[in-house]
Structures are given as structure tokens and as C-alpha cells.
Amino acid sequence: MARCVSRRTRPRGPEEYEVPLPTPPPDDPRFPAAAAPRAQSASALEEAVTACRACPRLVAWREEAARTKRRAYQDWDYWARPVPGFGPPDAALAVVGLAPAAHGGNRTGRVFTGDPSGDAFFAALYDIGLASRRTAVHRGDGMELYGVRITMPVHCAPPANKPTTAERDTCRPWLARELELLRPTLRTVLVLGGFAWQALLPVLGDAGWRLPRPRPAFRHGGEVLLADERDGGELRLVGGYHPSQRNMFTGTLTPEMLRDVLREAARTAGLPQR
């Protein structure tokens, strides 16, 4: 009788016995850290993000805003979920903001859509040829971005537009994975505001981008060139004031300043402009 002979020449390593652990439920604080790395595409990441309920305070706030509504939006069916990134998955320029507005992105389901910040931002993108429309109204309005993807450190609307550090850190894996998926084409990141700047730097450091010491401080128009320790590539950070209603109203940021910083970011990313 023929004898069956195993062809294995070495013992199994521990990794061959490992079974992927199940993803914690969406209301578990560990959900982003477990689910984000498993997303193999931008669309898969967007789907996972919108299911998240990991931060109880943010969940309560976004849903309360959807129940009470503003008088002008009484006929709206609010999105009331985390707002995913928006733009092509092979963008050369990423724009990192802060978080959705309670009656803006939290209502419309798209970042910078339906609030004064978005009115200023999309108008500037359109003026330099990076957006198909001057105004963004809702998710189905046909808006397209050219070579630009918008994301944020916190994907839920926070009370008073102020996420806690714990909420920022819980949400961090989504930003890290989105930038990793963009990495093959990404050349420049425009960072809107000091909160986004401070949230982004450790994400980039953990991903293998060499940060200067001391770490660069945020300033409008400031630029920092980072080297990729993996393959020697480069990534440029450009700082810009956030187009918040307050910044635009006080003149801290003007439409001209916003267009200028967008033009510089687009230029360094190699994007055509008009």
C-alpha cells in the first residue's frame, strides 16, 4: 500500500494558525482601529466610516441635531451619520479639514456641503478649476472634484465644533487609512487650521513620513516637505486657515487668500488650474 508522505519541510509558523479576529461592533471604541485597516478601497472605507458609532457624545449630538433641525431645514431628512471623505481615490492633493458641521455635512452627508464654510471653499475650488460646480447643496447635486480629495480628522459633527482629544484619537485610524490608500498618487496635503495640523502630524509620522524636529508649527501659507522613509518619495504639507464663517467674517481669511493657498497647494501637487 502506498504511504502518504507529507511534503512539508518545516514546522508551521504561528502566523499560519492565526485566524483574523472579528471586527468589534460599530459602537465599540475599538471599531475604527479594527475596521479601517481592512478597507481595501476608498469606497470600502467610506462604507465602514458611515457605520461607526464609537464615540457616544458625538453620536448623541449628531442625532439630536437631526431631530431638532434648524427652521430652514425642517423638510430635510438629515444624514446624521459619520461623513466620509469625498473626491477621487487617486487624488494628488488631499485637503484635511476639521469635522462636519451639525447642520452642514451632518445634514447633507458630504463634507463642506450645505454650510458657509463649504460655500467659500467650493467657490474657491471652482474658481481655480478643481471643482465642477461653484456651490455644493447635497450629495446628489453632481459635484465633482478634479485631483482633490477632502477628508478630516473627526468624521462626526461635534458640539460647538470642538472634538475632544479622545474623540480625535478614536477617529484617527480612518484618516490614517485614507491617506494610506491615497499614498501612491498623493503629492500635497492642504491642512485647514491648527486642529487638523496637530491631528495630521502623528498620523504621517506613524506612516513613515519623516517629521522635522522640532515639529513644524501651523501657519497660513506655511510649507513643509516630508521625506518618505519607505521609498524616498516626498510629501508637501501646506497650511491654510480654515474657511470658517468666523474667519471669513472677520477677514482673518479672505476669498483671495483662500484661492491663493489652494493655488499653491494645487501647483505643488501638479494639478492643472485655470
UniProtKB/TrEMBL annotation:
Keyword Hydrolase belongs to the record: yes
List keywords of the entry alphabetically.
4Fe-4S, DNA damage, DNA repair, Hydrolase, Iron, Iron-sulfur, Metal-binding
**Ranges of residues in domain Uracil-DNA glycosylase-like:** 84-262
Q: Which Pfam family is one of this chain's hits?
A: UDG
Write down the CDD domains for this protein, in alphabetical order: UDG-F5_TTUDGB_like
- UniProt-annotated stretches for the region Disordered: 1-39
Query: Per its UniProt record, what SMART domains does this chain match?
Result: UDG, UreE_C
* Chain segments annotated as transmembrane: none
Q: Where is the composition biased (Basic residues)?
A: 1-11
What PANTHER family does its record include? TYPE-5 URACIL-DNA GLYCOSYLASE
- Family of the protein in this entry: Belongs to the uracil-DNA glycosylase (UDG) superfamily. Type 5 (UDGb) family.
User: What's the protein called, per UniProt?
Assistant: Type-5 uracil-DNA glycosylase
The species is Streptomyces daqingensis
